[in-house]
Structures are given as structure tokens and as C-alpha cells.
Specification:
This protein is mostly beta strands and 86 residues long. The chain has one domain (2-85): ATP Synthase, domain 1 (Sandwich). The chain has no helices and 10 strands. The strands form 2 sheets. It has a 5-stranded mixed beta sheet with strand order 2-1-9-8-5, with no helix packed on it. The chain has a 5-stranded antiparallel beta sheet with strand order 4-3-6-7-10, with no helix packed on it.
């Protein structure tokens, strides 16, 4: 599935992912292929993206995520930090 992770100043990540985990306002949730459509607000926390190259972690201060037709769009005001691991 396609994921686009965007701040007002840059596209942080754009590509095919296996899964994505988000710090939702009502609790953490994971998105896999075939997930039902949703729009959710995000709290401060860590977004975890798993792709063919490993796991990528991005600290955020909050934002919004939209999931529709195996496309995920993540909009955040800013990143707190970035850590990439395999």
C-alpha cells in the first residue's frame, strides 16, 4: 500500500509500505493492506512505518491520517525527531 508522510515544508516519506502504526487520539492503531477507510487525529508520539528496507520511526507532535483504497496520507505540523532502523 502507498504511504505519503507530509509536513508543511517537505515530503518526509513516500513509498510502498507493509504496515504503519500511529499514535491515535483514542489509542494506538495499525494499518495493514485492505484496512477500512478512516480519518483520524493523531496525538504526540511515534509513527512506525515498516517497508522492505526495515522499520522507520518518526516522532510527531500530532496531526491527521487518512486511509482510503490502500493509500495512507499522514499530515503533521512538524517532526520531533527521526530514527531509522532495519
Amino acid at each position: 500500500m502507498q504511504l505519503d508522510f507530509i509536513t508543511p515544508t517537505e515530503s518526509v516519506y513516500s513509498g510502498e509500505v507493509i504496515s504503519a502504526q500511529f499514535p491515535g487520539t483514542n489509542g494506538s492503531f495499525q494499518v495493514l493492506v485492505g484496512h477500512a477507510p478512516l480519518i483520524s487525529t493523531l496525538d504526540e508520539g511515534t509513527v512506525k512505518i515498516k517497508d522492505d528496507n526495515g522499520e522507520h520511526k518518526y516522532g510527531i507532535s500530532g496531526g491527521v491520517v487518512e486511509v482510503i483504497n490502500n493509500n495512507i496520507t499522514v499530515l503533521v505540523e512538524s517532526l520531533k525527531d527521526e530514527e531509522v532502523s532495519s
